[in-house]
Amino acid sequence: MSRFVLEELSDFKDYAGSQKLGDLLTFSKDEPSRIKLSDVRVSPDGRHIHVLLRQPKHERPQLALSPKKLDVWFKGGVSIVDVFYLDLLHNKGKGTGVVAVVVYENGKAEFWKFLDCKTGWHLLQTSDLCNSPRARVVSVCVCSSLLVWCEERPASESSPALSSTRDKLRYCVCRRDCEVEDGAVNLGGLKIILHNNPKFTVISSGDYVHLLPDLKAKLQLCISKFFLTWSPRHDSFTISTTCKNTPIKKLSAKESDFRRLIADSLGYLSALEPPEICSFSPTGCGGLLLLLNTGWLYLLQEDGMLRRVYKLADNFTPQADTHTSLCFYVNTAALIVGKTLHLMEVNCGRELQKIALKREGLLYTNQADRRTPFLLSETGLFMLADKDSTGKVLGLSPAESNQSGAVLVEAIFEEACKYYQQRSLSSTQLTVESLKKGGRFQAPISLASILRNYLNSGQEKLMCSLEGELRALVALEELKGSLVRGGVKEVEAVGGTLVEKEVVRLLSSSELDGEALLYLNSIFSMFPSQAWSAAQVALQLHHNGEGSLSSRAAPDVWKMVLTPCPNSHPATNAALPVFELLCQSVVRFQPGWLPRFLQLSQQQQGSGRGGESGENNVPLYRRALWVLSSLDTDTEQRQGLEVELLLASGRPNAILQALRILMVKRQWERVTQVAQQFCKQSPLLNKEIFNALLCEVSQHRELDPYLDLLWALCPEDYTVTTILNLVLKNIPCSSPSPAPFADPHSSQLAIGQLKPLLRKVLQRETKPSQRYADILQSPLYPPPALPRQAT
């Protein structure tokens, strides 16, 4: 429903020179001499209109005043840069009224004051802003009691132009103090704010001066990818860009060489592709409204934060001939694109109304009522009024503001729920409460500015919900700034801190989607050493020096680490799972920790902190073995780690596999150690290990020094028959006519080697068998003769 309407204030007939103004404004668009609305200036009190005539040698007519003492003044002749107004109430000098300053390209500045008593504009003084007569002013503004301008220096007076890039750095930004008192203008000495810089458009807003790149230059260089903000009060520069919500860097204004000022930021800026600025308007309190070629309207705040306000239609494509006008009114932004007027509430970005205009218009402010939009068109001056209430103009009342703020709390979270639900792969319905508690809200930048203007109880609750996110964001942005400002060692330290925070944050999250997992993989790839240190911090790993690892990390962290791998080959996925990433880091930086890390992971998995085991889930030791086989490591080291991983798994088949690898490598001492360690684990495993060892004993004599240890491992239920059958089954085939006595250096098994084992087994049997007694021991005396019996 249409709420606001345009109310006509004047049709120009009460202004002197209205006929000339009407003729200029109603020229055909094809007329080359037609003035642009952007060349029209309206004084702060709305009584005076100045028109800049860009054509050279255009004479300024002498105009009479109307009874209402309103006038239209045309200024032509020498090329004019701009006309602006000094507010004497805020000037250091005394007096009231409006002083118009006309600045020419050649550096001349005319100070005119309108005197009611003398009925007209009177020239107070003409001054030279620039020191050089060859300098050319390209933009100018007034900030408090300072005149600030950007001038082009001749090549001979600037640094030698060695390249096309340096040739564009022939400008400088200057300032002079300005006081108007008792009809006199006092200009201070010229001071250079910045030199060796590109062409800047200087815009004043409150106590700040913004230096925007030339909108017409379209330079494909780093120097066109950012803008500067100069604070006279703090004597500092701030580097910002339209693609980042926070300032890139803040520097002291003591460094006035533009090239040195941005030297440390060039590498970072070269990788950016910021949107172009189509239009701008100062807010009057230090900020700036920016319309970008993406259709987004942004608000640059006094603290340097850049936040989105409003998005034009998706089909918005800025053209060179598209008329735009932008203005700020306390808590409302007005934007004219073509013949459409958009009204937006700056605090929350809500569109208040869209009004179709009959003609193009120019927005301006009136110091008597800064909350109400005023508009100039070829037919007159207008203001935007509320048609539903008498005397009420645009802007929210306190009651409406409170109501709007109360609705804002739930509206923000409801919209966020819809946004995250669309991006989520989970079928679980996301609620406002789960969003507040889950730490998933990711829009603290935009809301920080909104909340500043809403301080009632409802918004305080919202602020509490976002406090953690905001603190984390501020800390992260401070780290980013440190990376830009610091030296090599500081960058390394800050980079490690940044990686640590990111790794800890990701491993502590409730779940990792595909995008987050890819991000974690990239961190481990680009910063391997810092990522490994961060992983130790996240898992709170502690090595006690005796070969064991311990962890005091929360169960949720281990649950994230031990997320099951869906198939037997992690490489088939786009990114490695977390466990595989950590195993890679362990092998790279602490390879000796890998078996202990596997044991620790299995303990956590067994305590219910890891993913649930299922038929399709790959055991952790096999995942660790896959990582080991995929890395380019020393063969001997890799085989040693494979054995340790198999043993650390504690699985019978893995232990037997490790034992076979050691046997193939003929590391018999290690074989016996493993056998002694794991035979106690279970009777079945004891039998398998003993059988394997007895087979080796049957085939060679290399285990002779360890036979006593091996015989001690014989299972309790083994009999002499069982042992002899195993031996006979595994003895290698001999020659067709073996010698009756084996060669002392032969590898063939002798019965004497088995004698201690067989004796031990016979002694264990409850009913000893005499079947092999003659083999085991020779009688000391001849056996007694059998008793004779009568035949």
What does this structure look like?
By secondary structure, this protein is of the alpha+beta class. It folds into four domains: 4-55 and 67-156 and 166-386, Methylamine Dehydrogenase, Chain H, CATH 2.130.10; 399-485, no CATH class; 487-606 and 619-636, no CATH class; 650-731 and 752-763. The protein is built from 23 helices and 31 strands. The strands form eight sheets. Strands 9, 10, 11, 12 and 13 form a five-stranded antiparallel sheet that branches. Strand 16 and strand 17 form a beta hairpin. Helix 8 (457-485) packs across helix 9 (488-507). The chain is elongated. Residues 410-788 form the BLOC-2 complex member HPS6 C-terminal domain. This is HPS6 biosis of lysosomal organelles complex 2 subunit 3. Residues 3-384 form the BLOC-2 complex member HPS6 N-terminal domain.
